[in-house]
Amino acid sequence: MLPIERQRQIVAWLEEEETLSISEISRRLNVSEMTVYRDIKPLLEDKKITKTSRGVSLATIGHIPSNSCTYCLKELNNRHPVQIITNDQKVEQLCCPHCGLLRYRDIEKNVSQIICRDFLQNTTISGKLAYFLMDADFHLNCCQPQVLTFDSLKYAEQFQKGFGGVIFQFEQAIEEIVKRMNGNRSCECHQLGGSYVDK
């Protein structure tokens, strides 16, 4: 597990449990306490977490600061953010569809809605009804592999004709992004230019 993945996991635990000791984090991650201290240092510097007498806790109990992506912890500045609304009406802000899909998978049972923005029209759409394009030759300088969202299959296919890539529906997009992020960050789909959409 990479440091950023451990940091995300620590933040996720703190969202649920509010406070954790360094020794407990070390035990759960199966790493040394020194590794935990290295992992939490950037979180402390960015004021995402704070030290307490019992270990560490979120700086703002219950959620990540509103200017940071819940999943990758980057500052939110992408023009295609994703929002996840949980069953208890908390709103999580994610920097892009890549992070939105991964976060949705992590907390699926607690999600009421996932909201994306159509890449071409910049309108709000339901993530579960959207079409997701990966591997397009169009770079937004955000999380990789990059994912673009479209309200309609027609618009996704038109964009695909010009910029390539593979189109997925919601569940397929989750499976694909999880597969690619599972330890092999350079993984590339062998069916470029194809489509996984049920027509």
UniProtKB/TrEMBL annotation:
PROSITE patterns: FBOX, HTH_DEOR_2. Residues 1-40 form the F-box domain. It comes from the Bacteria. InterPro entries: DeoR_HTH, F-box_dom, HTH_11, N2O_reductase_NosL, WH-like_DNA-bd_sf, WH_DNA-bd_sf. Keywords: Transcription, Transcription regulation. GO terms for molecular function: DNA-binding transcription factor activity. Pfam families: HTH_11 (PF08279). Residues 3-58 form the HTH deoR-type domain. This is DeoR/GlpR transcriptional regulator. It comes from Heyndrickxia sporothermodurans.
